[in-house]
Amino acid sequence: MKHLFVLIFSSTLAIAPLSAQYVLSLEECLEFALKNNLQLKQTELNVERSMVNKERAIADFLPSVNTGASYGVNYGQRIDPFTNQFATNSVASANLFGSTSLTLFSGLTKVNTLKQSRYAWLASIKDVDGVQNSLRLNVTMAYLNVLFARELLFIADNQLEITRQQVDRTKSLVDAGQLPRVSLLDLESQMASEELNVVNAQNDLTIAKVSLVQILQIEDIRVDDFDVAAPAVDNLRPTPLVISSDEVFNAALSLMPEVQAAEYRIASAQSGLAAARGRHSPTLALGAQIGTGYSELNVIRNQVGVADIPFGFVEGTGQQVFVQQPILMDDGPRPFQDQFRDNFNRNLALNLTIPIFNGWQVRTGVQQARIDLESAQLALEERRNELYQDIRRAHADASAAHKQFLASSKAVEALGENFNYAEARFQQKAINAVEYFDIKTRLTNAESNLAQAKFNYLFRTKILDFYQGKPISLD
Fold it and tell me: What confidence tens digit (pLDDT) does each residue in 373-389 have?
């Protein structure tokens, strides 16, 4: 599984929720995404398709049963199969038949085909789990982006409010003649700049919400109609990692669905190779047939008299000898139901088929199955390598996030004290506006960096938890 974590995250630092009709938690966002995501639905259809293939492989063990009927008229010379009479005129006939066949042995091809389809079905289930995991990570990133954008808006509003208070105070001093008007102009210029920062922060928050809605695929909802719940992370403190990347990797090998799916596909390919090799073996099948039919040549003949037919002469006397032969007259074809009853036939047979040459179909099938197996083995190795690289990167990112969080916390603490001191000195006219706003800007940047570092650290550690099989949660 390969994920690209490029978004930036931050803490909400006890921000009051914005006015909105809906407040969505991370769990609710995950539920929406898992319900609506089209890629996930497509992957779930693959599971159904694999299930159908597995059921078809099971049904292949059952006997085949077929029945049929035919009716035709012959206009040429033929031997009628029901009367064994030679006919040259047109003859109508009908047939009704049924047959069944059961494969007793086919080189275990059906057994291995069933195994192949079952492992493919299990792999498709793991594919669904993999898509769900990726979706959970993407939703979490988008969710935290909203929190980060909201935090930046909060910081921008706070800085604007501080400047607005300074403008009001300075205006009073200018009106009283205690400060030159240029001091007020500097502050008003700074306030205009910070008002623009608020507008930009509001726009960034809107974009973050739009991205979240797109991932959740929720229809008929505006970004102003909802907000996200802020996790309780005020007491979050940077803690050094106590687990190595190799330990995380060893745990993930048996947990990540991408690896499990690749392992199932190897097992499926192995069974497919065994099934292909089994086609070299003879096939033994038990078959049975029943049938009956009707023919216009099968007629009813009634005796209407006796005829004396010359047979020969008596030797010595020369007296002619006659024999009596019945005179028969056709009275039409025998009734349909009588012929179907009398012509009923049955057949039971064992059929042995030995493959000798079939256009290299069996041979090429084995070669293709062997290639599929090698491809599945390479895919597993590739998944493992990707997982190892992802975990090493995630572990390095978490370690760096810890250091950034720690450094940002110290920077905000130091600059906060410096700003309080500078604000007091500015009110006492000990420093000018340029010096004051320089310290104020540095504090604003430090607070933004801390906001980024705090949630970045939280998210990076959650990724490591995810690779160890722990559910994604911001609680």
Answer: 999 999 999 999 999 99
Alpha-carbon span 238 to 403, nearest angstrom: 8
- Backbone angles phi and psi of 60, in degrees to 5: -70, -15
Query: What are the Cα distances from residue 15, in Å, to 104, 153, 163, 187, 422?
Result: 73, 10, 20, 27, 26
Question: Residue 73: which pLDDT band, with cuts at 50, 70 and 90?
Answer: confident
The residues that bridge with 67 in the sheet, in sequence order, are 98
Per-residue model confidence (pLDDT) at position 15: 37
Domain ranges in the chain?
Answer: 22-298+334-467, 299-333
Say which residue, 11 or 106, is predicted with more confidence. 106
Amino acid at 325: Q
CA 95 – CA 72 distance, rounded (Å)? 9
Provide CATH code, domain 22-298+334-467.
1.20.1600.10
* Rounded CA Rg of the chain: 44
User: When comparing pLDDT for 184 and 297, which is higher?
Assistant: 184
Contact 121, 52 (CB under 8 A): no
pLDDT of 8 strictly over 70: no
pLDDT of residue 3: 37
- What's the token pair of residue 101? 């066949």
**What tokens appear for 211 in the block?**
């991205």
Residue 281: pLDDT band (50, 70, 90) is very high
For residues 45 and 136, is the Cβ–Cβ distance under 8 A?
no
User: Would you place residue 16 in the very low, low, confident or very high pLDDT band (cuts 50, 70, 90)?
Assistant: very low
Residue 228 CA neighbour count, 13 Å, CB half: 33
**Other residues' Cβ atoms within 10 Å of the Cβ of residue 435:** 13
Determine the residue type at 280.
H
DSSP, collapsed to helix, strand or coil, labels residue 111 as helix
List of residues 6+ apart from 421 with CB closer than 8 A: none
Q: What's the length of the chain? A: 475
